[in-house]
Amino acid sequence: MNTEKRSGYYLILGSMGVLIPYMILQQIFDYPNILRFDVKIVLEKFNQGGVKLIITWWAFALLGLPLIVAYIKIGQRLEQRILYLRWITTVGTLGLVLQMIGLLRWALVVPILSEHYMQGNAAVRASTAMQFRIMNQFLGVALGEHLGQLFTITWTVLFAHALLKLKLIAKWFAIMAFVTSAIYFLAQSELVATVIPGSPVAPYSGLVGSTLWIIWLFILGIKLAAGAISFKEIAPEIS
User: DSSP string covering 37-90, please?
Assistant: First the structure.
C-alpha cells in the first residue's frame, strides 16, 4: 500500500475517532457550551455522567492519534518539495498533542475533582471549585484551546497552501480549508473573554470551525485513499 492510501486511511480513522465522541459529548454533556458554565453546574453534570462520560472523554482525547501518523507520513513524503512542510508538520503534530493533553483532563483529573466537590462541605466545594478553575484555565484554555487550536489552524492553512501549490488539490478544496480555519480562529474570542469579561465573542465559531475542520480532514482522507491525490504526479522541487 502506497503512502497516499495509508495516509488517507489514517485521516479517515482519526477524523471519525474525533467526530463520533465529539457528537456524543454534545448530546450527553452539552459540549462545548458547558465549558463556559458555572463550575457548580459543570462538576454536578459531570458527576451525573458517570463512567460512560469518562470513557467518552478518554475516547475523544485519544482516538485522534491516527491523525498524527498521517501528518508525519504526508509531511515526510512532501517536505523535499516544499521545505516549510518540515517544520509545519512539527507544528501540526504539536497542536494535536496539546489538544489531547487538554482533553485528557476530563478523563483523568475532573473525575477526582467532581467526586470531592459532590462529597465535600462548603469549604471543600469552594476549594475544589478554585482548583477546577485553575486547572481548566491552564490545561484547557491555555494549552488545548489556545496553543493547540492555533497550531492546528496554522498547520491547516499552510498544509492546504502547499497541496494547492503542488497542484494536488483543487482550488475550491484549499479555499474550504482557509474558510474553515478562519471560522475556527474566531473561537479564540471566547478564550479572551475568560480573562477580559465583556470582550466581543463569536458565538458557535468553535463548534462550527472544529466540525468543518474534521469534515475537511475526512474528505482529504477519502481523496487520498481513493487515489484521487497521487504524490507521484508532484512537479519538480519547489523552493
Answer: S-HHHHHHHHHHHHHHHHHHHHHHHHTTHHHHHHHHHHHHHHTTTSTTHHHHHH
